[in-house]
């Protein structure tokens, strides 16, 4: 049975996304100052880290640096602790992402970095997190503490902050015109439109329950791959169902055998370098009569939810997370589950 009052806290957090974009915009000067401090430090390699949703956020914000050929690694904090800590040095910058600023593995990765002289930056929405002890720079984004347990507006705001940070680093090092700040209004307009039309997404979530779809596959390429991972995680956290995410074209190499099962394939198909390849896959899957949902800003059809159109693949990919969060909310509540209180989850993981 649908749960009429379940998920109210999480939905309130999601709806505050446009306000969160404004708040990130008010921190542009601080973000630029941190970027300048990183460049002044002459860091020759970058590590981006976090846990769970924060790790996927770290993956996406590192993408502009990867494209420009700068030495950069996106690695979960636990893996740094166990395997990569010895590679940290004074030549490295460690950018950590943590909603609470107190995630156990992330704090330990930062501690190891500090011990080795790494330049430590943390992005968080908690003004007084324990990460201050190890941080050279503490980027606090005041979007308010989330009411729900699963990450929603914090994922969007911290990822956007990180993308602006890395684009500023590129501008300073390479002199490229990588000014994402000019497109914050477009992101906000997109977020407002998605929220205004949220009932359409709720109807989709409800329809998937009625069709007994209980398996979801998320496909993304380039900067939308971390969003595919995060979208998959949101649905898994809230509904406890089988979901997976993979690079879009990898679906042809084995997993395409699952087409024909009672599953939904979600394709994130932002305009950019991967567009034509992923669009071809999408059309092939449609021809196979699979249940399919597409998120894109080009060649919009009846199966497509519109993404923002900024000219930056990273920003357009980020805009996909908002409708995916709303879909996870609607699917869970249609099952009678409370996304505000997902089983076995805690707000902050304080030991490992």
From TrEMBL:
One of its GO terms (molecular function) is glutamine-fructose-6-phosphate transaminase (isomerizing) activity. Residues 34-180, 204-342 form the SIS domain. SUPFAM superfamilies: SIS domain. One of its GO terms (biological process) is protein N-linked glycosylation. Keywords: Repeat. It comes from the Archaea. This is SIS domain-containing protein. It comes from Ignisphaera aggregans.
